[in-house]
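User: My advisor asked me to double-check a structure prediction for NlpC/P60 domain-containing protein before group meeting. I don't want to rely on an old file, so could you generate it fresh from this sequence?
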Amino acid sequence: MRAVRVAPVLAEPRAGAEQVTQLLPGERVEVHQREGDWLRVTAPAQASAKDALGYPGWTPVADLAPDEESVVAIARTFLGTTYVWGGLTHDGVDCSGLVHASFRAVGVAVPRDASDQASACEPVTLGEERPGDLWFFAKDGRGTRVTHVGFVTDPATSTMLHAPDSGPRRYVVEEPLPDARRATLVSAGRF
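Assistant: Sure, here is a fresh prediction for NlpC/P60 domain-containing protein from the sequence you gave:
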């Protein structure tokens, strides 16, 4: 499991208990026990004399996601974030910055720009995408230069998570693939 946002690690499984450390977005944890909405975890990246496996404590279930779902879960924490050209944070992010920051949080190095991301990932045949794959778009719809990228979140309904750079919404959204965007879809890929 991985943290999908900055998450508290508490001494006991209850709100208001003493915070003993925090998990950073993408930080891996080992889960040892569940008690209601709380998980007893150890954080291997945080060495501690308290436990040879890593810093121990309790964290809310809602703040963690399975490894295979963690990149999209982290990207979803950006929902509503304003589109900012060149942005990489919750203060403002662009489309490729959303992809870069989400993968970076789980320790996967991907290029910064959409065109470089399209060149570096493993190609996926359109129609065979899985959640977490990427869709790439070109203004002319012919793929001469990729200018936009978004996460595939539900291939069956053509739903994507992205930071639109134009149109009525200039903030991170998860939405069915708009017709105007579908006309410019040129490829899919996987990291």
